[in-house]
Structures are given as C-alpha cells and as structure tokens.
Amino acid sequence: MRSAVLSNGRLAVALDKDFYIADLYYPYVGRYNHSFGGKFKIGIWHDGKFAWLESMEKRVEMDGLTARLRARWDGLEIEIFSFVEFHHDAYVIRVDVRGPGLIRVVFYHDFRIMEAPQGDTAFYDPELDAVIHYKERFWFLAGSSHQLYEYNIGRRDMGIVLRDCEDGVLGKNPIAQGSVDSAISVAYPSFYYWIIAGKSKEEVARVHGELKAKPQYYERRNTGYWKVVTGQYSSKLVGQSIAILMAHIGDNGSVVASLDTDILKFNLDTYAYVWPRDAAFVAMALDEYGYASFTKKFYEFALSLLRDGYFFQKYNPDGTFGSTWHPWTIRSKKSLNIQEDETAIFIHALWRHVELAKDYDLLKRAYPAVRRAADFLAGYRDERLGLPLESFDLWEERLGVHAYTVASVYAGLRAAARFAEMLGEEEDADSWISAAQDVKRAIADYMFDKQLGRFVRTVRIDDGKIVDVDKTVDASLLALSLFGVFEPDDPRIASTVKAVEERLWVRGVGGLARYEGDYYQRVPGDYSGIPGNPWIITTMWLAEHYAALGLISRAQGLIRWAEERASPTYLLPEQVSPFDGSPLSVQPLAWSHAEYLRAVSAVKRAAQP
C-alpha cells in the first residue's frame, strides 16, 4: 500500500508508509520502475544515535500532489515535504529538523535501473558534489542544496553501504559498478535534497544547478499549483481524487491503473498498465469536473492504438502490448481474446468528452477510428441472436457473452451514432442505431431469466443457440441501467438490483462484493456468508444507480462508506477486507477514485431542481 503518489507526467514517485520511495517511474508514468524491489531509506543521526524513519512516530499528509511527513524522535521534530517538480524531472524534498545537538540526515539509494539490479554504475562527482547512478540512457543524480557531509558507494549484495549509514560515518568509496547502492549525508538541520532523472549526465547536471540556485522557488510554485487544482472543492477527497487521477496520466496520454507495485507479490505482475476501460473511466470522471485539457491527451493516445477496430487487453504506457493471460487459441469467428467492453466504453467516453468539452477538433480527427470501432461492434455479433460474440468479461476471468459487455456495446454504438449524426454521416448513424436497438432487444430476450425475475450475468452461444447460462449474481449487472440500456426504474432492473444488493452486500464492514464466490485477493478468515471482498468501484456503481433514481440519501450513504475507507492521505484502494475494512490489493487504484468522483457528480446532478 502506498501513502502518497507524486508525478509530473514523466517522473512518478510512489511512497510507502514510511515515506520511502517504493516506486520510481521514468520516462513514462508506469514505466520503467527504477526502484523495482529496491530499498530507498532516510535516517537521522543525532548526537551519536541513529534511527531510520520506519522506527519513528510519524504521520503522512497529502495536499494535491505534494506530501508531508511529520515525525518525532529523540527529542527532535522532523518535517519532510516532497513533490515532483512539474517542469524538471526531479523528486524534491525539503528537510527541517528542529531540536538541540548535532544532526546528520542520511539518504540511502537502491536503484534498479531499467527494472534490473545489474549492469549499473554509481559514482561521486566532486565537481557537482553529488552521487550519480546510470545505465545506458537513464541517469539519476542525488544531490542537495547544501554541501554533502559524506557519501559512500558499494556493491548491494555486500550490504556495506546500508550498514555504513547506521554508524553516522560514510566511507567515501567513490565508485562501484554492477549491482550497486549508495548513500549521502547532509549535516544541516534545514536543506533541500533531490533525485533528478535524465537521459544524460549533462541533463541531470544542468537541472542540479538550476535547483541549487533557487530551491524555494520551485517549492512555492509547485505548492501553489496544487492548491489551485484541489483547493476549490469543499470535499478533501474530491480534490485529492482529481489530483490522484492526474498523477496517473502520462505526458503522452497513457493512463495506468495503479502505480502501487505491492500487488506484485500476489501475481508476479503489476497494475502499471493502460487498460482502456479503466483509463476511459478516469477520463470520464475528469471530463465531468472540467479537466478536458488533461483527458484529450488520453483520447489521442488511445485512438492511435485503435488500429483494428478494437483494443488489446492492456498496453504498456509507451503503447506497446502489455502482458496478457487471454489465450490466442480462442481466436475464431465466434470469439476473441479481448475484452470487448474496453472498446465500447472508450467510444462512449470519447463522445462524452466531445459533448462536454465541445472538442470539435478531436471530433473530426477521431471519426475514422470511431467508424472502425463502431463497425466492429456492430459486426461482431451472432447473426441470429443479435448478441455480441464471445469475449472476456470485465473481471478478465471468463469467456462468454456478458451482460456488462453487452450493455457497453449498446452504449458504444449509441455514442458512435451521435458522432455520425453530428458529421452528417446518416448512413453510418442509421446502421449503428439499428445495431444498438438489436442489442437491446437481444438482452431482453436472451439475458433476462423470467423464472428468476432478473437478468443473468453471462450466456454462452454457439451458432445462434444459447448453450449455457451463468446465473451468478454479479455487481456488473448494474451496467444495464448505468449505460442507459434500460431505465433505472424498469421493473427488470429493480429486481436485478435487489438481488445484487441482497446477495453481494458484505455485512459488518459494508460495501458491495464483485460477485458471489469471488476468490480474488481473499485474506485469511472465515468467508462463510461473505460473497467476496467489498470493492470501491462496485459500491460506487450502486450509489450512481440510486442517484439516478433520485434516492439521494441512499446514494450519499454509500459515498460516505467509500470516504471512510480512504487512507489518511485520501487514497482509495481497489478493495477492502470484509473483516476489518483494511485496504487490500493496490492503493491507490485510479478507477476507484474515478468512480467515487462519478458518484459524487451523479448525486449533485440528481439534487438539482
């Protein structure tokens, strides 16, 4: 779990609970992680005693994309304020230590440049009075506004540098290569320290000089910027959620799901990928709050990937294919190893962007890609049933025809038709509207179980026949009203929502599980009577549904539930423990913050006369 995330769109830093760098990404937000598995630490030497931050009494705060640690130790008051400078690729911190006696602050660096612990070089540069780590085109400079007291560089596997930090005296070994670590110390009570990322020694040296000349200036402008962005909201979590979403957007428009790599220990991979679905919801949330200048970058990035009319499962932040577990063996005329909802939701989000931002420039440039996607959505259907053919569900677990996917296809086709109508493409508009109406009829005909009196999660089809029905209650069934397929007060929707709430509400801690029998990220404990872990996303879907019905107090109660699950620094996790409500999986998850913002916006709209 992370306590803070800081980013400028190129350099992104995620801090752990001890205020140590846990993830350091450059030059893309989400790629590469140059601290992958490494230990970055900060320690204080005071009158012959030494302690790392993890052993101190402390608290962490966030304000926009700035973070502050306040700690007490050995009679000292310690404050560390940090940010990623928005013009320079530098992680900057200001240190203030108040109290009597001699003080030295030690910074330990454990770079894994290009996500690998070998082949690095680190050296002390006396001209710059800084330590530099580099490999190939990646350079990182650790320096200060004040003269360094000492430094040391060594082999990571020998552990000499880390042990050396704790005696208050660094050995001043000037260089090492291979698998290396380093440390520097500063013997002043108040100073600035930074890690600068760049593509050459000359670049990091130049920025080092600029920061050293006026560090207070860079702190003032970054602090002022984030106060402007987040300070206009009465709800702290709303303002921070907007900042967190901005932290996940790269300068190239990529939007990663999460910068927290703690998930690595569960599945040997991370969430630092671009899922078009998650990213589209992030963009929709920011569009609703008026930040279209940020989201336009994402839409242009995603449009460049939409070459075959549909998206791959997920992408790296540089636009290359991400890792996947959807087998290529299922690709046929009847199924694809994609999640079709990702394409449909993107088209839906893109139309909302054009509509809200009046981005007519993007409208005309996007239409060729929109046409390819809409033709795919309209054509990738069973000729007899009218339902989409099989793809993987939004939870990325099962192949079939899913209510959530079908609802998104309906919304995507409707959105594409709006594009066509605006551009006078009447033939396209008529074709896509007709396909959307066919999809809606097919949902009613083949995915509503009259005996159960509700919609079903998934059907399997083969040559125009339903061959299997999955009746598991799933929170994603809420999409049938949230995507506008049916009105929220439709009796069929009401009965479905009733089943979702009755079967998936987690008693005790509250919140809505994904579906019955969900095993993902389960923690030790007795899950008897517990469908799965509560998710922020699913619970906010329920809030959005009640807001659409005008049941504002019920929606507000669900929103308060999410607010109570936020960390002290206002980060929302993916899910929480059903036993004590503690965060699980990653924290923060961009989609959780996006759905929270969308739920708050839905309540605000519903409350308007």
Short description:
The protein has 609 residues and is of the alpha+beta class.
Estimated helix fraction: 25-40%
Q: What does the radius of gyration come to?
A: 26 Å
Instruction: Work out the strand percent.
Output: 15-25%
Topology-level CATH name of the largest domain: Glycosyltransferase
Instruction: Write down the overall mean pLDDT.
Output: 97
Give the strand order, joined by hyphens, for the main sheet.
7-8-9-10-18-14-13-12-16
Q: Please identify the structural class as seen in this structure.
A: alpha+beta
How far apart lie the N and C ends? 41 Å
What is the CATH architecture descriptor of the largest domain? Alpha/alpha barrel
The number of helical segments is 16
Approximate shape: elongated
CATH class of the largest domain: Mainly Alpha
Describe the structure.
- This protein is an alpha+beta fold and 609 residues long.
- It folds into 2 domains: 4-228, Beta-galactosidase, Chain A, domain 5 (Distorted Sandwich), CATH 2.70.98; 233-607, Glycosyltransferase, CATH 1.50.10.
- The protein is 36% helix and 23% strand.
- The protein is built from 16 helices and 28 strands.
- The strands form 7 sheets. It has a 9-stranded antiparallel sheet.
- A hairpin with a 6-residue loop joins strand 19 and strand 20 (399-402).
- Helix 8 (340-357) runs antiparallel to helix 9.
- The longest helix has 21 residues, at 426-446.
- It is elongated and about 80 Å long.
Task: Give me some keywords for this one.
609 residues; Beta-galactosidase, Chain A, domain 5; Glycosyltransferase; 2 domains; nine-stranded antiparallel β-sheet; five-stranded antiparallel β-sheet; 16 helices; elongated
